Amino acid sequence: MKSSWRTILLWAIPLLLVGFFLWQGSFVVNVGNGVNTASTRMTYGRFLEYLEKGRVSSVDLYDNGRTAIVEAIDPELHQIQRLRVDLPGATPELIEKLKESGVTFDYHPARNDGAIWGLLGNLLFPMLLIGSLFLLFRRSSNIPGSPGQAMNFGKSRARFMMEAKTGVTFDDVAGIDEAKEELQEIVTFLKHPEKFTAVGAKIPKGVLLVGPPGTGKTLLAKAIAGEAGVPFFSISGSEFVEMFVGVGASRVRDLFRKAKENAPCLIFIDEIDAVGRQRGAGIGGGNDEREQTLNQLLTEMDGFEGNTGIIVIAATNRVDVLDAALLRPGRFDRQVMVDPPDFKGRVAILEVHARNKKLSPEVSLEAIARRTPGFSGADLANLLNEAAILTARRRKPEITMLEIDDAIDRVVAGMEGTPLVDSKSKRLIAYHEVGHAIVGTLLKDHDPVQKVTLIPRGRAQGLTWFMPGEEQNMLTKAQLMARIAGAMGGRAAEEEVFGYDEVTTGAAGDIQQATELARQMVTRFGMSELGPLSLEVGGEIFLGAGWMSRAEYSEEIAAYIDEQIRKIVEHGHQIARQIIRDNREVIDRLVDLLIEKETIDGEEFRQIVAEYTEVPEKERFVPQL
Ligand code: ADP
Ligand code: MG
Ligand code: ZN
Fold it and tell me: Which of 170, 217, 219, 222 to mutate to test the pocket of ligand 1 (most atoms within 8 A of CB)?
């Protein structure tokens, strides 16, 4: 089966190339019949004159309207002549004139674009390259487990999507009420533009939706089109950026042309940062294709007046990288933030997605929302869907809290694996997890334990779950310190119980997490002896600007930062070791219980710990550095 595929492909590529050139050949013939046979030329001025006098019978526009083949009646010879005219382009005025004079005219777009001739030569090599890549990808995707989707560009001929009716309304969007309110106005613009133009108001052309992935930006845009009852055109920025120079720009042109034909309508450009990055910011040479596409987009946006009934909505999660030209008045001058939902928002989103699901009455959406801080709308939708799938698989009539809990675990930590049999490594993992859990339980500033489990999930052999508080983006120094100590709890337990020589690689993730937290405390939050200095600009680093946005500091400061990070992590490590040493008895009991039961929930864990320790909870704080 596999090899037959490859044979087909091996054949398909040469055929593809041959087909391509055949097509090109017939194409030459085509144009030859048109443009080239009309060797007699006529000036543009004469053409206009002929047009006015009604001597022109038909006009065929080629080459983006820069060349026309005109059939005109010669006044002296009284016969029809085919003449070639060089035009300044297919301007609206020209089209208007042609319409007025009732001439039959035709437009032969795109393929006759002069640029394509240059392109064809350049295409050969990429085609061969793609051919071989195609094979390579194909081959690698035959390996079980590797994603088979790498070849999507092979069929990415779809330029943009048009939906006459999106069927989405504002009711389907929840938890982002401010954004909805701001966008309500756009609906009115689309529905009743006359209300605004009557009083001389200029309707905005572009709105930028800014927010992290999955917060509902696409959904919102569809809802606007749905509420206004206008067609929805959508394209993704990454689709603009093709490997061939000029393709993106022509797609932009196509898109806006189609949109104008269908006005009033809404154009949605997803991931605009893929095209809209600051020009000239790339490393390794400018990206010509992207710049051309962006320039075309800017031109198109300038080219229509606010009252043509087209509104362009773009989405991005990186407004900071966008080219300033995009944000200028008359383009995307309005920005609407689409934030991740808070607790109330999550409840509202869950309500929307619970509408078409059979939930058992005991399921509390509030409880789900409480367990899922940081989840986006898409995560929540996915969560309920996973729960529904689990329910169906278990042949239950309705979704219960059990399925929901399992679905949350699965969404957060990956698929469940089979537990280890009792062995030394299982005991070590048990001590490691109980180490996390006990440090987390005994430090007052730590989030409470939700459960400890030895059932592997994703790449983790065991897991300790904590109940995160709502205020995840406002943490105190004590909370951060407690997290670092908690993260070191696993390794600390390994060391205390099994000795330094027996520690395992299982703590790598914990160590990384602790180091990262400590680094941020030093370089971003001003929580070290270095004082309140910003030594790093937040956000992910991407090619180009990432290099520039790193704050300047000296070698000494760099060494000092490293030292401070080390100090903080080591401090957390020592706190954890101390806690393990002081509570060895209860830890041993918890480990036995965990090995027996595989999962201990937070309540039971805390009860057992309380039997052994008499320090009241409010006094258990993290000793500060
Ligand atoms: P984005 O475009 O911001 O990445 P999407 O609009 O594509 O996110 O969201 C993906 C899916 O997640 C939506 O189709 C919807 O089912 C769900 N979703 C996301 N945000 C919300 C929300 N605020 N309300 C309801 N559903 C949401
Ligand atoms: Mg989207
Ligand atoms: Zn761990």
Answer: 219
